[in-house]
Amino acid sequence: MSEARVSDDAPPRLLPGRVLWASAGVASAVLGAGLGELAAGALTLHQGPVVGAREAAAAALPAQFVIRDGIDIVPVVTGAPLVVLIGLLLVVLAAVAGVGAARGWRRPLVVGVVVLALGGIAVLLRPEPSLLELAPVVAGTLGFALGLVPLAGLLRRLGVAVDAGRVDAGRADGGRAAGTPPVPAATRRAFIGAATGVALAGVVAAVAGEVVGRGRRAVEQGRQLLRLTMVTPPTEPAGVGVGVEGVAPWTTPAEEFYRVDQAVVVPTIAAEDWTLRIHGEVEREVVVTYEELIEMTVREQWATLVGLRYEVGGDQVGNAWWSGVPTSALLARAGVLTGADAVVQTGADGWRCVTSTQVLGDPGRRALLAFAMNGEALPLEHGFPARTVVPGLYGGVSACKWVVEWEVTRLEAVADDFSDRPLQAPVRIGARIDVPEDGTTLPPGSVTVGGVAWAPPIGVGAVEVAVDDDGWQLADLGVAREHDAWAQWSATLDLEPGEHRVRVRARDRVGTQQEPEPLDDGAGATGLHEVTLTVDADADDEG
Ligand SMILES: Nc1nc2c(c(=O)[nH]1)N[C@H]1C(S)=C(S)[C@@H](COP(=O)(O)O)O[C@H]1N2
Ligand SMILES: [Mo]
């Protein structure tokens, strides 16, 4: 490892130049670890690099060494062996990278890539990996670079060579080798100051990450302790399923429910701290607390939510059982003044949307201020403590999560502020083929195709499928009693050998057909979902 000339008598002394370069690497690694932890905390991921290592260690330890305090796992043995091992490995790698930086960027780059890859693999090996969890690893690697580049630059500017101050024990005089002068004290001090600053920044970032992450854990714990006795668990209406494997489950589990928001940091508001302020053009300003909300008359209903940016065949659509208070009841408390026709809703993340009082104020439109999803308090990601759900309007114009403010106003007064989105965008009728997947090769015989279709707030009337340019045939529909929820559908097709295009379309209960052309007008997806299936006599039955 050491590149010092080998001597027969004694190994070379610790070399100040080399030590300074190695320290640059280690200080940068501290900054990287800190930024990784901050990224994890800010993204409110369950674990950052440090916590992750701690939990890995906890998992590896015998049970008696581990206590579980609610949702956190704390190894009793501090300095658990695995953490120490990982820490040591990182320190060694960082030192190697630091020393390598004296000669150019190749070695630190290689170390960075190795750490990135190892971290990435560790994340992907977790039970349910998500790409977002890579963020701390990436932040950590970037943080490392962020520290090393200026520190190496400083050392270079100060003229510190790796072998500066080297004592060549092999030399007869035992003294300093020519051309490798000692590092002057002032230079050393300047560098130590800078390196300490970098490392301290890392510690501050790590502490900040812990604080932010702990805030989330506290709110999550409070959420789990809520006893919402007025909320009933979801019971799927009989017959809604078509029993075809691979079709999206009729009830979308909260963990699988699509998520769209601009919140880099998921707002964490404790239930007891939450209020909704209703003000503006109202008879009286109203501030509703969580306790007051859940004590109002609760309504529960199935509703399918669709993203404004749902793409044909995509996954920005989900169906859940929502419990909440009709928005009409809340607006009635405040008393909407005549002429006021819009509500600007604001979420705790600062996101806003405008929704008409006609919709929010009409009990028949079934809009909810929801506090539970699928029988449990809203998950943090889906708007805890409360969010709006409006059947038949796209999420982006109505379904404000973490909602804290309703300003009753006039559409004309605020329309310009929302020019990025269509106003009042009603959900367009849609249908999706879930199975078989596009590009599947099948053996000859009959094939079952299936998927979901939606037409809130009217309800799905019929779903049809077409093979190539043959005519449309009716698909079987799960019982679609619900107006606001999607319907599962399936159809059995007999396909000739060769390649086929299978399309689906839906219509609502009053006969309105799904828009077949892709309009791309920003008001929600249009066009029909299609898949290409190949029937091949040699295909095995697995597909
Ligand atoms: N506060 C807040 N609410 C929001 C958003 C947001 O970014 N912030 N995104 C909206 C959009 S575009 C959609 S499609 C829905 C998605 O809700 P979900 O993430 O629970 O599926 O939330 C809406 N409500
Ligand atoms: Mo959306």
Automatic annotation (TrEMBL):
Alphabetized Pfam families for the sequence: Oxidored_molyb (PF00174)
SUPFAM superfamilies, sorted: E set domains (SSF81296), Oxidoreductase molybdopterin-binding domain (SSF56524)
Region (Disordered) location: 507-543
Gene3D superfamilies from the UniProt entry: 2.60.40.650, Oxidoreductase, molybdopterin-binding domain
Record GO terms (molecular function): heme binding; molybdopterin cofactor binding; sulfite oxidase activity
Domain of life (superkingdom): Bacteria
Keyword Nucleotidyltransferase assigned: no
Domain Oxidoreductase molybdopterin-binding: residue ranges: 265-411
Transmembrane segments: 20-45, 73-99, 105-125, 137-155, 190-213
GO biological process, any: sulfur compound metabolic process
Keyword terms: Membrane, Transmembrane, Transmembrane helix
Record bears the keyword Transmembrane: yes
Protein name: Molybdopterin-dependent oxidoreductase
